Amino acid sequence: MSAAVATGTQYLWFISRGSGLVLLALLSLVFVLGVATRTGSATRRWPRFAVAELHRTLSLFAVAFLGLHVVTAILDPFVSIGWAATAVPFMSPYRTAAIGLGTLAVDLGAAVLLTSLVRRRLGHRVWRAVHWLAYLALPVAFIHAIRAGTDLGVWWVAALIWGSAAAVLTAVLARLLSTARNPAAPTALEPGPRIDAGPKPQEVHSR
Amino acid sequence: MNAASTGLSELTYPALRDSVGLPRLLPDRAAGGPATYFEHLARHGQLPGCGRDLRRRRQLIETVEQAGLTGRGGAGFPTAKKLAAVAAERRRPFVIANGTEGEPASAKDKVLMAREPHLVLDGAVVAAEMIGARRAVIVVHQAVREIVDAAAAERRSAAADRVQIEIVTAADGFVAGEASAVVHWVADSVATPTRTPPRLSERGLDDRPTLVQNVETLAHLALIARHGAPWFRGIGTLAEPGSTLVTLTGAVRRPGVHEVEIGMPLAAMLDLAGGASAPPAALLIGGYFGTWVEWDAVAGLPFSVAGLASLGARPGAGLVAALPIDACGLVETARVTRYLAQESAGQCGPCVFGLDSIACELGALAGGRDFDLSKLRRWLGQVDGRGACNHPDGVVRMVRSALDLFSPEIDQHTMGWCSGTRASSVLPVPPRPGRSP
Amino acid sequence: MTARARLEVDPIACDARGLCAELLPELVTLDDWGYPIVHDHDVPAGLEGLAAEAVRLCPTLALRLERRRVVRSQPVAHSSAGRP
């Protein structure tokens, strides 16, 4: 980093970039934990309910970091993004596409989070259908990080981003393999050994 | 009613109310085929209705209670209680007449609808009036759809009913006859059972209170409405009055459907079917969810809930299948269990996986291969009562009775022997893909 | 001491995820195929918190806790899944 004298407002820019990085790593962890709840084998130290609870807690924690990331970016005077861009994608005059992808990721993530908070009311099917959006939200967040991020030249920043991406891809693979091996619904039964099909139901007569 | 004045020369029997005995539901008729609407009216008279009169409705339900009618679909639940429960609900209810008869060996409902469709329709109509329903859905087996359609058309042109009648073809499959599965089928064309809370009498079709009743029960209801409780109690036993339809099958000379009075001894019932075609070793009573009982023990017992209780059996859906001495009870049980496992709706893990495991183990037992009896018994215990409907429960009951009754045979099979010498099978099982023909 | 809550599993929704058996081993064991067997449906007061957590965490919402209303000293029997 250059040895420029940091003015007061440059802190907002630093915090936005830093919290964005943490957010990406955190969301990747949340994603991996979510997949682990479904497919991972439980151990004595990490029973399923613990993984599920951690997944839930960390996702709420991520919301805090998201708030920090977005607010500091909007408040930063050097770039004009505008409050509208927090909710509606592609509204920012500054780097419209890159920021817009971030907004898109937030919208998708918000749907996932909000439906999870009222899961019991919605019922399992609806909740599950919306939850699949997580598989879309995270890649979009990654593309946002790569296009809007300014620090990819730094080796450990790149390592963190690509490392998180690798973890997420591994989780996705594990999920796909798990579905192939154990489908969600019970498989159709094998006919079993033939023990003679039996006669056709006889013609019945009444007295 | 004078035969000459009606011009229907084959009707020479007295009006039903003068005769308390049999036949009631299935009369001897010279001509084959279903009774027409006029034949039906000539024999039974007009169906008394109650319309919107609440007091008359209550009176009719009380009459049914005094008559002591119980469900003929297998569970034997007191009909008046069901009627009262649905009538007590505030929303307008539905009536569903269940003629699915998913049990492959049972034919009583099909025969009843094929020969006396108007009795069933009468029953549906009077039940609807008793509970304040305006619509009755009659779910009928594919084989008798045309006949019931024609009967309903006859009634429409005679403007006979204040209740609207709809006919629906039943779904295929064993579980399709379960009450909540029938409601599900009528509502969404999916014949799988649903969660039992809430009860169907509170929330069923269209989220409204729904009365689901077997077609035979409704036929009895139609007669009770006409002739009253003392008439109904004229035959049968004190605790279980009336007549009932039974399907006699297996090793009998003339398999078929017969109407008998409740409490008739089993040996006499088999004589109705021409007697056993080979010395019977055991009977399967109630249906494929029923109980295996030893012939010598059951021959003198009355066919009733009280009469069969000592052997742990129930009349159920009225099926009595005779197992001859040259057949192997374990082989028959294994085949039926494999069929029932395949007929699982596939919604609940213990039913899908448990019945499959049980069927495999039974298959090994029947085939003289290595099997583990203690594992089998453990699985039976784990599966019992663990589904959303009573499909696994019924299988467990039947298999447990087989393991108890045929335990000498189990010893034989352990040593690689089987006392069955019969080439053909006794109990019918529809060919895959598990659908009744 | 009469229990104030009853633990029920919806067998259609249940997908053998096993979280309930982890949280409530005193009440729930798994059968040979991984599906929960509830030995005792009555939840003792001490386990109510864990039971509520299990209900909340069940991935398929198959677990439910039915509260009983206690009138004076006599518990009012609530309607359960009787099959007429």
Describe this structure in words.
The complex is a heterotrimer of chains A (207), B (437) and C (84). Chain A has 207 residues and is mainly alpha-helical. Helix content of chain A is 65%, strand content 1%. Chain A has one domain (10-181). Chain B is of the alpha/beta class. In chain B, the strands form 2 sheets. A 5-stranded mixed β-sheet of chain B has the order 6-5-9-7-8, sandwiched between helices. Chain C contains 2 helices and 7 strands. In chain C, 18% of the residues lie in helices and 26% in strands. Chain C has 84 residues and is of the alpha+beta class. Chain C has a single domain (5-71), classed as Alpha-Beta Plaits (2-Layer Sandwich). In chain C, the strands form 3 sheets. Chain C has a 3-stranded antiparallel β-sheet with strand order 4-1-5, covered by helices on one side. A two-stranded antiparallel sheet of chain C has the order 2-3. A two-stranded antiparallel sheet of chain C has the order 6-7. Chain C is globular. The interface between A and B is medium-sized, with 20 and 45 residues.
